[in-house]
Amino acid sequence: MEANAKGKMLIFTAPSGAGKTTIVRHLLQNFDELAFSVSATNRPMREGETDGESYHFLSTEEFMQRVENDEFIEYEEVYPGRYYGTLHSEVDRIWATGRAIVFDIEVKGATNLKKFYPNESLAVFINPPSSDVLFQRLRDRSTETEDELRVRIARAAEELTYVNSFDRVLINDDLQVAFVEAEDIVEDFLGSVK
Ligand code: ADP
Ligand code: 5GP
């Protein structure tokens, strides 16, 4: 496949539970021109996650040290006491390989990245079919305690209001349909010829 991936970034954003991780994983498996920006966080690792692949898992002290050192393009306290941030080093590392960067990031971070890289980026909001479906998916994922789930649902409701704040909206109802639409968005953006 010929593509023009160098110096580009694709930002996937949505409320927690909308399907960012699922869609981003699918794209990474199908496009060699894409590479995932591994964020840093101080949240605990979930089952099935790998340090350095899903996230750089840091202690709160290590995270704050990196903030002090100006190592983040952006970072947010997404949930009380839980920090997530995009490292300058990730952007440099991936662009040096000639690939386009893929982000899985919440709405405020996505807005900041878009401001930082207005010409290089395409930001896609993944919209669930309804808020009820979204909350049910979060519950079914079973990765949070009841308390954490309540916090996520409250935040997700607010994040849904950002639906029209980005370049594209991708509806994630039927997953196979969403996969195909996501592939089309990538091909369009990279200007690729299969
Ligand atoms: P996010 O990364 O946005 O928090 P995930 O990709 O983890 O979301 O998806 C949340 C949950 O919903 C996961 O358990 C995932 O398997 C499931 N899921 C994602 N997309 C769909 C879909 N279209 N239909 C049904 N379940 C889905
Ligand atoms: P999770 O704990 O489910 O992996 O992620 C929680 C939220 O943090 C998700 O919406 C995810 O997209 C977001 N997130 C992940 N990495 C970053 C990042 O580097 N910066 C910001 N602002 N949010 C991030």
Q: What share of residues are in beta strands?
A: 15-25%
CATH architecture, by name, is 3-Layer(aba) Sandwich
Order of helices and strands: EHEEEHEEHEHEHHEH
User: Major sheet: order of its strands?
Assistant: 2-7-1-8-9
- Gyration radius, rounded: 16 Å
Distance between the termini: 5 Å
At the fourth CATH level, what is the homologous superfamily? Answer: P-loop containing nucleotide triphosphate hydrolases
**Largest sheet properties:** 5 strands, parallel
What does this structure look like?
The protein is α/β, with parallel strands linked by helices. It has a single domain, classed as P-loop containing nucleotide triphosphate hydrolases (Rossmann fold), CATH 3.40.50. Helix content is 41%, strand content 23%. The protein contains 7 helices and 9 strands; from the N terminus they run βαβββαββαβαβααβα. The protein has helices at 20-30, 60-68, 88-96, 107-116, 131-141, 146-159, 175-190, and strands at 9-13, 34-36, 39-41, 55-57, 72-79, 82-87, 100-105, 121-127, 168-171. It has a 5-stranded parallel β-sheet, sandwiched between helices. The chain has a 4-stranded mixed β-sheet with strand order 4-3-6-5, with helices on both faces. Helix 5 runs antiparallel to helix 6. The termini are close together. The mean pLDDT is 94. The structure holds adenosine-5'-diphosphate (ADP) and guanosine-5'-monophosphate. Residues 16, 20, 39, 43, 74, 76, 78, 84-86, 104-106, 109 line the site of guanosine-5'-monophosphate.
